[in-house]
Write a structure and sequence with these properties.
The chain has helices at residues 2-157, 160-306, 312-320, 353-362; strands at residues 329-330, 333-334. The chain is an all-alpha fold. A hairpin with a 2-residue loop joins strand 1 and strand 2 (333-334). The longest helix has 156 residues, at 2-157. It is flat, with a radius of gyration of 76 Å. Keywords: Coiled coil. Residues 51-123 form a coiled coil. One of its GO terms (cellular component) is axonemal microtubule. This is Trichohyalin-plectin-homology domain-containing protein.
Length: 378
């Protein structure tokens, strides 16, 4: 009974443990599922967010592109407007210039017409004045003749009373005529003075205008002349600077050549001095060697005399000097190399014991005939 209870208890415990494990696995699987669903939801949210961001970026790009196109069109329209404004301003400028030219030509024509009008008026005035003056004279003459004739007739018909009355009437008429003539003369003079004043003012205006134009042209010519003088002065200064630079370069080259020539002269003098020193030293060496040679020959000749031998060849060789050898110059002296069986016209061959002794002292030590010749070998 106890075993069954124990088995049953163990089975119940195992069953409870299995249920707990199953519950744990379910909880874990649920947690894993929740985590996976959460991750999937997050991934989906991120995907949607990226999609929205991409759509937003595309929308921004599209909006920026549209804004760029609008700005480009606006800029193009502004450029077109500027071009049209510039073209319009140019056309207006041309129109204004044409209008100014037309106005200038009209002004010149009006001035020319005014001048002709003044000339015609002046001529007409002068002609009218002459005609009026002639007419007044003719009228006055006729009037005077008529009055005189009438007065003469009345004077013949009437008495002195009538003569006084006629004289008074004549005086009054004459005064009236003269007053009228004076008035007309004054009016004509005023008109002439006004005309002359207008003509004088016009001439003065033209004269001043011409003077101003002449002054402007003179000032322009003076400015051009001053500019030309300034250019000439600048060109002359530049030429002067170039000449100075050339002179400096020439002076530098001359100094360089003088320095080189001085160096060459110094080198030449040094070389000449070295040559002179060498020649002097060479002459001294030659003199010393000559003295040594003469001392040597004196000793040899003295030895030959003591041996009672013929010293004539030795004296002849001594008189020839130290250049009696046939070999190369060594130490300032020419050595003598005598080949065997060679025919040398020098000292004869001595075969005596004295000669052999001398050869042992001063010559070759072998027994060859050429080696036994006595010679001055330095």
């Amino acid at each position: 009974m106890n075993i069954i209870d124990e088995i049953k208890c163990k089975w119940m415990k195992g069953l409870a443990q299995d249920r707990d494990n199953t519950r744990k696995r379910q909880v874990e699987s649920k947690a894993v599922g929740d985590y996976v669903r959460q991750q999937m939801m997050e991934h989906e949210f991120m995907r949607k967010q990226r999609k929205l961001d991409k759509e937003r970026e595309m929308e921004d790009c599209r909006r920026i592109r549209e804004q760029y196109d609008r700005e480009k069109r606006l800029r193009k329209q502004q450029e077109e407007v500027k071009k049209m404004d510039a073209r319009k301003a140019h056309m207006e400028h041309l129109s204004t210039m044409n209008t100014i030219r037309v106005l200038e030509s009209q002004k010149q024509e009006m001035e020319e017409e005014r001048r002709r009008f003044f000339e015609n008026e002046r001529e007409q005035m002068i002609t009218g004045k002459k005609e009026k003056k002639t007419e007044r004279r003719r009228v006055a003459q006729r009037y005077k003749e008529m009055v005189v004739g009438k007065l003469a007739t009345e004077m013949q018909e009437k008495a002195s009373k009538e003569e006084k009355l006629n004289a008074k009437i004549l005086a009054e008429s004459t005064a009236k005529c003269e007053a009228k003539l004076d008035c007309e003369r004054n009016e004509n003079n005023e008109k002439n003075m006004a005309m002359l004043t207008a003509i004088t003012k016009h001439r003065e205006y033209k004269r001043r205008e011409q003077e101003m134009m002449a002054k402007g042209e003179e000032q322009s010519a003076r400015d051009i002349l001053n500019a030309g003088k300034e250019d000439d002065r600048f060109h002359w200064e530049m030429q002067q600077l170039k000449a100075e630079e050339k002179e400096e370069k020439r002076g530098y080259m001359d100094n360089t050549l003088r320095i080189q020539m001085a160096e060459r002269r110094v080198k030449s003098r040094l070389l000449q001095k070295e040559r002179m020193d060498y020649d002097n030293k060479y002459a001294e060496l030659i003199g010393e060697e000559e003295d040594q040679f003469q001392h040597y020959t004196t000793g040899v000749i003295s030895a030959a005399k003591e041996a009672n031998r013929n010293t004539l060849p030795l004296l002849r060789a001594a008189n020839k000097g130290r250049w009696c050898g046939v070999g190369p110059i060594t130490g300032g002296m020419r050595t003598d190399y005598l080949a065997p069986s060679a025919n040398y016209d020098k000292i004869p061959n001595y075969v005596s014991t004295t000669v052999q002794d001398l050869q042992k002292l001063y010559g070759a030590a072998n027994d060859q005939p050429a080696a036994r010749r006595l010679d001055f070998i330095w």
